[in-house]
Specification:
Two copies of one chain form a homodimer. Chain A has 129 residues and is an alpha+beta fold. The first copy, chain A, is built from five helices and five strands. In chain A, a hairpin with a 5-residue loop joins strand 1 and strand 2. Chains A and B meet through strand 1, strand 3, helix 4, strand 5 and helix 5 of A and strand 1, strand 3, helix 4, strand 5 and helix 5 of B. The first copy, chain A, binds a DNA duplex (30 and 30 nucleotides) through helix 1 and helix 3.
Amino acid sequence: MATVKYSRQRESILSYLRSTTAHPTAETVFNHVREICPSISLGTVYRNLKQLETLGIIRRISCGDGNEHFDGTVSPHYHLFCRSCGSVSDINMPLLADLNQLASHYTEGTIEGHSTIFYGLCATCVKPR
Amino acid sequence: MATVKYSRQRESILSYLRSTTAHPTAETVFNHVREICPSISLGTVYRNLKQLETLGIIRRISCGDGNEHFDGTVSPHYHLFCRSCGSVSDINMPLLADLNQLASHYTEGTIEGHSTIFYGLCATCVKPR
DNA sequence: CTCAATAATAGGAATTGTTCTTATTATAAA
DNA sequence: TTTATAATAAGAACAATTCCTATTATTGAG
């Protein structure tokens, strides 16, 4: 049931996401993938982003500014959301000791993962102009 | 400039947020505050939620399901987002040592704060029915 | 190879969450 | 009081996302 069939559009989306560390929005993905697949529609981008996320192939980053960002890297790492320019950048910091396990001691629910986002100014915005 | 004037509507919104640990959405806030202010409009709820957030009186929680949740508690603490029922609950776990400071060693940007959300099943959804 | 089943698409309509606009009302300070 | 202006209700406008439908592409079987 529901076998996944190949599509050039999905491959382009994934390939673009894996080629950048900019954590683009759906709109940005659309604009880039358009250059390879000129006839792609925005609906196709949204559908595939959702599917790839569900399959665990990409990650969604919600930073509270009303824009969803996407990440082609699924291994856990940290992000910095810049309150000035709205960018999302990686922070290459070692992962903390198992937060999930620690948290599980403090709830009767089940912990399956977590996400940490830092807020502040990115390297570009913090520099004097 | 821009002095803040009292309004019964804002007070009701804040009072409701502080009375619950359910981390309601704007829509839910609207439905509850309606019982005290029957003529309140959804726009007023959104405007005040945004203002209270800007003033640092409440917090916004973005968990990636397309629904913004609000928290009348502003002191740092952890949340669990339930993938089954979509609820946001508190996890009363001691705060980790200063993550902000640690992260600042790994970026040229400025860290002002962070947010950690756990994902999994809440206590209610994990129990056998 | 050819064909049948069906997943995926493009394009646009529809939906949803949120913000904006405007005339009116409430607050607060002189 | 009076006056300046912040806040409101109501609904229009907007933007991000999902849904709909007829068509196209992929894939596995024969």
